[in-house]
Amino acid sequence: MNGTADFDIVIVGGGLAGGLAAVALSQAGFTCALVDAADPAVMRTAAFDGRTTAVSYATARVFRRLGLWDKITDEAEPIRDILVTDGRARSRFDEGTVSSFALHFDSRELGEDTPLGWIVENRFLRNAIFDAIDTDPAISIFAPAKRSGAAFGEGAATIDLDDGRRLCGALIIAADGRFSALRAEASIKTNDWRYKQTGIVATVAHERPHDGVAQEFFLPSGPFAILPMTQNRSSLVWTEKENAAPAYLALSDDAFRREIENRFGPYLGAVTLAGPRWSYPLAFTLAQSFIAPRIALIGDAAHAIHPIAGQGYNLGVKDIAALTDVLRDGRDVGLDIGAMAVLQNYQRWRRFDSASLALGTDLLNRLFSNDFPPLRFARDIGMGAVGKIAPLRKFFMRQAGADLGALPSLMAKES
Ligand SMILES: Cc1cc2nc3c(=O)[nH]c(=O)nc-3n(C[C@H](O)[C@H](O)[C@H](O)COP(=O)(O)OP(=O)(O)OC[C@H]3O[C@@H](n4cnc5c(N)ncnc54)[C@H](O)[C@@H]3O)c2cc1C
Fold first, then answer.
1. Among 38, 82, 269, 372, which has the highest number of CB atoms less than 10 A from its own CB?
2. pTM higher than the cut 0.85
3. Ligand 1: does its nearest atom lie under 6 Å from the Cβ of 198?
4. CA–CA distance from 186 to each of 98, 165, 172, 289, 340 (Å)?
5. 378-401 mean pLDDT
């Protein structure tokens, strides 16, 4: 295709957020162009992204309603319990060594036969999304193609690709990730800082079953999460000081495995590495506005947060579900979907909610990533209190399930 192609919406960034947005908006009746610099064939491979995502039950509803969950369900491990311990390695509730300052979230306490979430490898989420895109005539994919320019006009906006093609839409969605260049070109400022921490990610197989228990405990270098996966494997997200991480990443497989076993303690038995190691520099970015004339930000382009609570993508999915409602409602009453009057509804719905969760996770990380005795004492008291008060525990479980506040129609409870 040469020259200009016209769409209702042009989405820049075909990651987990941009891809899902294309599927949701197409099913709401919009024609979409989806642009990504990477080749989708490469993005589908296991080597592209070694992470797993803790999918909240509200996010799972979105995948179900869009017809994507059937492709994922066999690869999704339910989280039945979450155990949070302000302990050092080896503090384990089933070994009788756990600190009394532990929080146990039990899915059965919510009184529904629903797990607290699911752990899914990112490649399975991505493949389900790309499969839907490939068979949807209302979505045109432009990838690999890098966006090189953008212009936001009175009646429409245009996106230029580095191969000379031009895409035109009533609305541009920036889903180009944490370093979003499109956000900067729309003159949207951010608040951001680095954590001086690296997220080390790896998959391990283990001797004993995990029983669907997700564990998170806090070491002075940062949180350490062990997340239950299918086939008796676990994904670990090990937050390490950025200056110490390279040495761990350079260890031999056997020495790395011993470091993991040392942190896991004995509760999963012998551990073996089941894939390569990955590392992600951790930072906080929050856009000061999620909208500007003819542009809306979603996913990490709007908010990139610490993975301590496994909520980054879940926030992005809520953006997508809310934006879909707002644009559909606007169109149905004859409004221009790129107009600020319509986009303000999205901003009102999502910016405060995202900012409070982003800042909450930032606070949690600061509270728990150090060994300062008075702080340790205060947080242990806090954890002890939450652990003893059932309504508070339920509140935190619903918060983790992203099931609080005004839910967009794709996320609403199924009857
Ligand atoms: C260690 C770790 C663990 C995590 N665990 C969880 C979890 O358990 N649960 C959870 O909810 N979240 C989790 N997250 C967060 C989650 O991974 C991210 O929020 C999510 O992947 C962001 O997706 P995105 O599509 O917004 O951005 P990205 O994945 O960054 O995608 C942006 C896309 O834009 C494209 N792009 C950029 N610039 C251009 C351009 N100029 N032209 C064309 N294309 C362009 C890129 O190629 C890329 O594909 C975790 C994050 C980390 C680091």
1. 82
2. yes
3. no
4. 50, 20, 11, 10, 14
5. 63
